[in-house]
Design goal:
Length: 72
């Protein structure tokens, strides 16, 4: 899903999109394994995703500004 939205949006973050897609896939797989093993609090993987996004967003915004990309 992320890569499709990146293609439609014109790849504003360049190759960084691949890192985001891998991170999303890894966290999705982790959630699935934890859920199958009965650890229903495994949705904490979503919290990890949010924390990573909060940490990376400022740097991504600076990179986009340097590249002259419009921001949302």
């Amino acid at each position: 899903g992320h890569l499709i939205s990146a293609v439609v949006g014109g790849w504003p973050l360049g190759p960084f999109h691949w890192l985001v897609a891998l991170e999303m896939a890894g966290l999705g797989a982790l959630f699935a394994v934890l859920h199958q093993r009965g650890w229903k609090i495994g949705s904490a993987a979503a919290l990890v995703n949010v924390l990573i996004a909060l940490a990376v967003a400022p740097a991504a915004a600076r990179l986009m500004a340097k590249a002259g990309a419009p921001h949302a």
